[in-house]
Amino acid sequence: MRPLHVGLRYRLAPTMKLRNCAAKRVSEGQDMDIRAILMGLIFAMMWSSAFTSARIIVADMSPLFALSCRYLISGLLGVTIALALGQSMRLTPAQWRATIIFGILQNAVYLGLNFIAMQTVEASLAAIIASTMPLLVGFAVWIIFGERLRPLGIAGLFAGLIGVSIIMGARISGGVDLAGVGLCVVGVIALTAATLLVRGATSGGNFLMIVGLQMLVGCVALTLATLAFETPRLNPTLPLALAFAYTCLFPGLAATIIWFWLVNRIGATRAATFHFLNPFFGVAIAALLLSEQLGARDILGVAIITAGILAVQVSRQSKA
């Protein structure tokens, strides 16, 4: 006859296994369903369209001044909605750190430099450079943090590098503004740094409040930069009004809300997979709305970068 504790162990083992599986499933989010796919596509389109709307805005409004106003409006809207949903401004120290880091590096440095650059750089090129962020994050966690990357992910990193080289070779031979490209590159490095510095620091709830406060932090930083480096310029036009309103409401606020919905529903790793669509949507929207020309090397480079981003994300997803 088996001892009582042995019998209990065998009887409880299936139950414990089910509970562990359930806990793992909750932490990774639900499976990808049609609703999550549709919302992911909408998120990618909104994120990618921000470069085209920014290009329209800087034609009639000085870039830092425009961003300061955008983040003031979007930040106040985000905080107001968060308060209406019962969220609190009482954040944890880690959340405050993430709010300040993201507000400065992402909202002020990354987007500030991109807005300045898009006075001379086409929206499609700025979107392609910014879309390499998942590749830079994958490279950093592999080289700097020692995270093991599968062969598929390593191949994706090298594919992304090849794709960028093809596009930059075509654009440089066509006379692109290298100073503007340099600003875009520094901007995406700042965004990558922000992503790495606050990994997991936004857990604990109050997501929408954190987003709103991040925008207000960016507003303060950009206002100081405007006063120090820029003479505000404003030429009221209908395209400016439409692009500014769209940028505040959709890429600025709605896309962020959709992103957090995706993370909560399917998990951060699966949600990040939708970033592979950003290069394609970025150049397609710019070509459609701004009539930006795309050559065969541009299209080839975008296809290779897209495949590289997808390979890196799928590699990290299979590991998770």
SSE order and pairing:
Layout: H1 4-28, H2 34-60, H3 63-84, H4 93-117, H5 123-130, H6 133-143, H7 151-173, H8 178-197, H9 207-229, H10 238-266, H11 268-272, H12 278-290, H13 296-319
Key terms for this structure?
320 residues, mainly alpha, globular
Describe the protein in words.
It is globular, with a radius of gyration of 22 Å. The model is unreliable at 1-28 (pLDDT under 50). 46% of the residues are buried. It is an all-alpha fold and 320 residues long. α2 packs across α12 (278-290). The protein has one domain. The chain has 13 helices and no strands.
Strand residue percentage: under 5%
User: What oligomerization state is this entry in?
Assistant: single chain
The largest sheet is: none
Radius of gyration: 22 Å
Number of helices: 13
Mean of all residue-level pLDDT scores: 83
How far is the first residue's CA from the last residue's CA? 43 Å
Helix-strand sequence? HHHHHHHHHHHHH
Number of spatially distinct domains: 1
Spans with pLDDT under 50 lasting ≥5 residues?
A: 1-28
Please provide the count of β strands. Answer: 0
Helix/strand-derived category reads mainly alpha
Backbone shape: globular
Give the % helix: over 70%
